[in-house]
Hints:
The protein is 37% helix and 7% strand. Strand 3 (110-115), helix 4 (122-136) and strand 4 form a beta-alpha-beta unit. Helix 2 crosses helix 6 (169-178) and helix 3 (89-106) packs parallel to helix 4. It has a single domain (3-264), classed as Rossmann fold, CATH 3.40.50.10310. A four-stranded parallel sheet has the order 2-1-3-4, sandwiched between helices. By secondary structure, it is of the alpha/beta class. Bound molecules: zinc ion. Zinc ion (ZN) is lined by residues 38, 46-47, 166, 171.
Amino acid sequence: MGTAETPWAHEKSWREVREYLDSGNDMAILPVGSVEQHGPHMPMGHDAFAAHHVARDAGQRAGVLVYPTLWYGWTNNHMALTGTVTLRPETLTAVVTDIMASLLYHGFNRVIVVNGHRRANLAPLEIAVNQMRQRTGAALAVVDVGIIAFDRIADIRTTPPGGQGHACELEASHALHMNPHLVDMEKATPQSSNPEPEWMTGHHISDPAVDAPRFFYPKTVEEYRAEIGDQGQSGDPTQATPEKGRAFHEAVVERLIGVIEYIKAREVNVRHRPAPFED
Length: 279
Ligand SMILES: [Zn+2]
């Protein structure tokens, strides 16, 4: 891929991107995250770091160009605690649409959006990818870091059901693997109080040991603030280790490479390349 084999597009010259396309490559990866509270023990950029590192490692191994991480996302609930920044969902849809349109304009035919901010970003990202796919015929996909290797989490976790949530066993482990200097395990405490019946576990979708939600009833920011108090995490981060984080990271990278191969194998006929400055 040129320039010391970095997968990052922003570390390459425009001519290297041209050569990448001219030599038969037509795929790009776009990591998307969120700037939001992750409890007192983890950095606010965790979801962006997760997408960033997963996309980088998969892009490196599969020889796919990775565009710069979009650090911001849609995270209304986490506005409950200081420091979080949220886009409107339609802003996220619009930004990702414009990035994909720019890439198609230059001749890319395939884009995989890697979401590091479970659930919340998914609806706006899926709308962007679905609409653009209908308009252009390009092979566009969304991969969620928290979902793509969901089944593998069962082998990695040691907490009982409810241990995964937010800034939890898994996210804190992943943070310890990626950014150990940014995690303060002395400030990690468990929060797994769930007053609802077992079948009504709407906010535990990120825990594969707990059944999937049956209906969608988003909490208001005020309700969420009351639930998380002055902590911010749900699940149990006290059992996080860098080894669990590495195992999770490798499982996710492996699955993302599987999706890269799947999308590479799709027949694609891009019939329209709408530049953001044209409409
Ligand atoms: Zn997170």
